[in-house]
Fold this sequence. Notes:
Helices cover 23% and strands 31% of the residues. By secondary structure, the protein is α/β, with parallel strands linked by helices.
Amino acid sequence: MTEISNNKIIVGISGGVDSSVTAMLLKEQGYEVEALFMKNWNDQSEDGACLWENDVEDAMLVCDKLDIPLNTVDLSSDYWEKVFKNFLSEYKNGRTPNPDVLCNQEIKFKAFLEHAEELGAKKIATGHYARIVEQDNTFQLLKGMDQNKDQSYFLCRLNQSQLQKSIFPIGELDKADVRQRAERAGLITHDKKDSTGICFIGEQPFRQFLSRYIPPDPGFIKTTDKKIIGKHEGVFYYTLGQRQGLGIGGVKGASDAPWYVVQKNIEDNELIVAQDHDHPLLHSHGLTASNINWISGKIPDIPYKCQAKNRYRQADQNCIIEKNENSSFSVSFESSQRAITPGQFIVFYKEDTCLGGGIIDSVH
């Protein structure tokens, strides 16, 4: 193993503007900076092009401009085993997972971190909009200053060791400032569109993509009074509260109002829908969550009052956390929550501090 340098930081570079500016800022601050491009998904588009080739080309141009070395590592087998298999298993069970959270836990801040240490780095840096502070010998994860881009939700599975070895240089900046800095520096990524879609897999027609791994299992779409009004391709392709892509239209005796998925009946392979954005079946005041990671390493005094998000970009919701007899926790919300989705993550906050998060098992 290469000797670890106190001044050496490996930046996870993706070919986007955020990681580009991350590398630039660290070099300006006098660190010995190297970049590492992670190849985590082996796949091709319909025209045969590798989906990651454009990104690695942009990363190379940025590194040339900044005069920093670019390393590459193939972590696709780690991604498949530790993230994608779980992703498929959850969908097969009718749940809706969030692979981006698991990807951060298992790939970006584990496999990538281990490889960076082998390259001699003491710390890694990524282009996440979040902040890390040390207080009373405990590393705390804070929201990014840009509330519209805050990514602490996706980092809820990190632990003390991972935070201690990580830096988020753009966490104090807003997105517009990041783009302006990139443009002034002449970085090719300054106006590059933000990536969306599944972590490392990118933007693809989701149902078409998922059908390559989970065969369609057609069934009936029914109203809440069990009237058949259509057919679905498999309940695992849909999520609670979904409006688009249901293929329902011109139902006799019904208005022209949009339909929403309000329930997934896994056992009978039925999709239950209603013409009500706020149907009672979509609302609940609580949930049960398991496999909770507490970033501090300590469970707070229970019952515990704090805030939570049960999906990304949701406003913080007041709640109370209580411990169940098993290892799970019950979360009760001050106000009714729409479309809480099993398989997604519930992430806890105390104002700007992210406390951690776990997987939603059920609602009540």
